[in-house]
Write a structure and sequence with these properties.
118 residues; mainly alpha
């Protein structure tokens, strides 16, 4: 076997080691995280002064506190209703469930006994 035969067999196959279905030139973001100072699209993140950053953080904190207050107001109304009427509803539902199950098994027993008599 000479060198020309080796080269022919070596270059006669085309091998692809990429990700199947992935577009050319598109990187997988999980393997290549964005560089610091740039967003996911590769655009630079604007720099903020300390005052701008502090005012933004203060604003987000106030919005979070407000949403918690509003959420608690609605949740508290629901909790009051559940505490007031919950025990009665649970008792009534349990009673109905036990009655229904009891009736079901009594009917089953009656059907079986009628089959054995006949």
């Amino acid at each position: 076997m000479d060198i020309t035969e080796t080269m022919d067999t070596q270059y006669s196959e085309l091998k692809h080691y990429g990700v199947k279905g992935q577009k050319w030139g598109v990187r997988n973001p999980a393997k290549h995280p964005p560089h610091p100072g740039f967003n996911n699209k590769g655009k630079p993140i604007p720099r903020m002064t300390d005052a701008q950053l502090k005012s933004g953080i203060d604003r987000m904190t106030l919005e979070k506190k407000y949403s918690n207050l509003v959420k608690d107001k609605h949740t508290n109304a629901g909790m009051k209703f559940a505490k007031k009427h919950g025990g009665q509803m649970v008792g009534a539902l349990a009673s109905m469930a036990v009655t229904t199950i009891g009736q079901h098994y009594i009917r089953k027993a009656l059907v079986r006994s009628s089959r054995t008599i006949a």
